[in-house]
Amino acid sequence: MMLAKSDSSDGEAMATVSKSTSVPAAESSGEPVVADVEYVLSEDLKDLSNIDTQLQTLLERLDSKEWMVVFEALTSVRQLAIFHPELMQPILGEVVASVTKALKNPRSALCKTAVMASADIFKGYRESLLDILDPLLLQLLLKASQDKRFVCEEAERTLEVMTMWIPPQAMLPKLQPYVKHFNPKVRAKASVCVYNSASRLGVEDVEQIGLESLLKIAAAQLNDRLPEAREAARKLLLHLHVVYQKNPPDISHSDLPESEVPASKQDPWEQYCLNSLPAVTAQAVLRVTCVDS
């Protein structure tokens, strides 16, 4: 028998359950009781002692109906991603699909472990995940958006790991659809990810991606419903302003109608914003970046 307990943030009752039995919680949330499990930090994980067996049975264990078996398999995923990423590479797509499935599990212990496994996968595989990233990314954004801090804070940390280990040139296109998501909390978390990723860009990187496209992404979030999204947009605009000042692009008036050519010399950043954005949006951007308009 195992002593079952919940994380204090879940507020679930104490109960005794067997290793293979799921007992529903009494609360209205309907979430099963969480067994007594240990969440090991990545740096404290040890290598597997029986690598071949663990690898051969990994997919079967990840697909088990017994949650403790899945929990242990997710720990194996973490160990393989850290110590032997090349061995798990051939089945990486199936592993990521199973981790994504575990993220949807109502049991907090399983969900949180899947979130932690995602972080280790990001560190181990980086941009090689791009073709299979979308379903995992959406689930992490959803988990980071939920009210249960037990999982939410872990998902936020994992999203930050993602933006640190996957190059921004590859990550930003993946994030762009989610800053327009219908769920405002998902939009906010995606906006934070966009800032965290884009803030790693230097002058040459911004030129490669396109300053104007990044400017438009940030400007669009300035009027978002949630303060978190607006703050991420402001921080991104300030970063882009700094990058612009290091290497301002040439601005030509040759394509503008004569009536729109400024009579007096404008601040280059102000001029760039007015040329790149609708007037009202440009004024909002200029207020954020402390440029008198």
TrEMBL record:
Top-level taxon in the UniProt lineage: Eukaryota
Residue segments, region Disordered: 1-29
Domain TOG, first and last residues per copy: 44-283
Stretches of the chain forming a coiled coil according to its record: none
SMART domains noted in UniProt: TOG
Protein name from the UniProt record: TOG domain-containing protein
